[in-house]
Amino acid sequence: VQLQACGGGLVQPGGSLRLSCVASGSVEPNNIMGWYRQAPGKECEWIARITSGGSTNYADSVKGRFTISRDNTKNTVHLQMNSLKPEDTAVYFCNYNARFQYWGRGSLVTVSS
User: Fold this and answer.
1) How many CB atoms lie within 10 A of CB 47?
2) Phi, psi angles (nearest 5°) of residue 42
3) Listed residue (27, 11, 4, 23) closest to 86, CA to CA
4) CB neighbours of 66 closer than 8 A, spacing ≥ 6?
């Protein structure tokens, strides 16, 4: 499985960004896709996941601000990020988990005025 993510960039505090990740290859119908991030000098942090059935979970740090969604027909997962804060600055990684786990290349999100 290959994961291709896009949508990072620079945004001002309070702004919004949307990350997307497309899975291709031997994608299994029952899988969990999610997002992690790693801020400079910090450990990798799980932030959200969604099952193929649409059940979602969020880290407390993003709950109420970020929304994860998916389109199973396109093997795509999205992360809508609203009310962004400088502490959301990080490299964001897409994750696919079924029989095996795969990672996408990171997308840099910078929240700064």
Assistant:
1) 24
2) -120, 165
3) 11
4) 47, 48, 58, 79, 80, 81, 82
Spell out the per-residue pLDDT of the chain, length 113, in tens: 999 988 999 999 999 999 999 999 999 989 999 999 999 999 999 999 999 999 999 999 999 999 999 999 999 999 999 999 999 999 999 999 999 999 999 999 999 99
Closest to 44 measured CA to CA, from 64, 59, 57, 56: 59
| Both structure tokens of 109 | 């999100």
Residue 21: CB atoms within 10 A of its CB come to: 26
Tokens of 99: 């029989």
